[in-house]
Amino acid sequence: MANTVPHHQVSTANEIPGCRIVRSLGIVRGITVRSRSVVGNLGAALQTIVGGNISIYTELCEKAREEAFELMLRHAAAMGANGVVAMRYDANEVAQGVTEVLAYGTAVQVEAST
Q1: Which end of the chain has fewer beta carbons closer than 10 Å to its terminal beta carbon, N or C?
Q2: In contact, 62 and 25? CB cutoff 8 Å
Q3: 105 CB neighbour count, 10 Å cutoff
Q4: 3-state SS assignment for residue 46
Q5: Domain residue limits at 29
Q6: What's the structural domain count of the chain?
Q7: What CATH number is attached to the domain comprising 89?
Q8: Angle at alpha carbon of residue 101, lines to 97 and 104, rounded to 5°
């Protein structure tokens, strides 16, 4: 059993191209909660003066999504899945400067279509 579901076996659709779902195992999720540091907030404030992309926040958001995604894949593998369909992200601010990022979907077992 793999420790994680392969990235190419994840889809935001209700199917994985080239595969047939043989069993649905239920909802899986990965969650992370991140905060911005004082230094990060200061750097972002300086970037807002210039305008454009605030790369400090972009990097923080990307890392949070990646971590939540990987946790979801491990959760799916622990359930015996080799794929995830209907994958989505959600994010909420749980306190000022503290954000929860959730990756979720349906764990499935798939086999190659014939």
Answers
A1: C
A2: no
A3: 26
A4: helix
A5: 7-34+67-112
A6: 1
A7: 3.30.110.70
A8: 165
CA dist., res. 27 & res. 20, Å (int): 18
Q: Are strands 19-35 and 83-95 parallel, antiparallel or unpaired?
A: unpaired
Whose structure tokens read 């779902």? 21
Query: Is the full-model pTM beyond 0.70?
Result: yes
Looking at the domain assignment, is residue 97 inside a domain?
A: yes
Each residue's pLDDT tens digit, 8-62: 999 999 999 999 999 999 999 999 998 765 555 555 555 566 666 667 777 888 9
* Assigned domain for 77 exists: yes
**Are 103 and 69 within 8 A, CB to CB?**
yes
